What we know:
- The chain is α/β, with parallel strands linked by helices.
- The chain has 2 domains: 8-62, no CATH class; 64-186, Vaccinia Virus protein VP39 (Rossmann fold, 3-Layer(aba) Sandwich), CATH 3.40.50.
- The protein contains 7 helices and 11 strands.
- The protein has helices at 22-34, 60-65, 67-72, 86-92, 107-121, 159-169, 181-190, and strands at 8-10, 13-20, 43-50, 53-57, 75-80, 97-104, 125-129, 143-148, 154-155, 173-178, 198-199.
- A hairpin with a 2-residue loop joins strand 1 and strand 2.
- The longest helix has 15 residues, at 107-121.
- The radius of gyration is 17 Å and the shape is globular.
- The two termini are 19 Å apart.
- The mean pLDDT is 90.
Amino acid sequence: MKVNIPEGKSGPWEVRKFTVTPAEAEIQSMRAVFSSGRGVPAGEYTGLYRGNYVIMSDTPDEIRDHREPISRAKGRCLVNGLGLGMVVAAMLEKKEVDQVVVVEESEDVINLVYPTLQDRYGRRLKVVHADALEYKPLRKDRYDVVWHDIWDDLCVDNLPQMHILHRKYGHKCDWQGSWGRWICEREANLDRNRNKLCYR
C-alpha cells in the first residue's frame, strides 16, 4: 500500500518524500509510549502536507488504519477524501472492484494525486470535486463499500461529522466506516469531561 505519487506542490498543498532515520524512529517510539501509541519505523515515506503539517502519509500505522475498507472493497465503492490515494489505489488493485468514486474538496489535492491514479486505473476511477458533507449522491446511487476519511487528526470533535456521513449513506451501501471512529468513540466514552484528545 505504499504510494507512488510524485512530489509536487499546488497551492498550500504538497506531496513530499521524507526519511525517518533509526535514531528518529527510536525517539518516536519512546514518545508514543506516553502519548498516542503511534510511532514511525525507520524508512522512506510519502506525505501529503498542507503548509508544514502532515495531513496523511503512507506510514505503517496509517496503512493499518485502512485495512478494513480495503479488505471489504468490491463492486462499486465510494471514498470521501482522496488524500494520497493510498486507499483508492489499494481498492482498485482488487479485481473484484469495478469502480471507486472519490469525493474530494480540495482542487489542489486533486491536481497533485489524481493524474497518477487516472493514468493507472482509467475509467474505474471517478473523482468528484465537492465537500463530502455537502455532496448529495443521486437517488439511484448505491455502493458496496463507503469509506470516510476527511479529517486531519484523530479527535473526538470528528464524531458529529462522522454521524452525519453515516446517516447520509446508511441506506446507500452494504458497509461503511470512518477513519479512526472507534478510537474517537473510545476516547469520548472514557471521560466526556476531560480535554479533547487529538493526535495523528
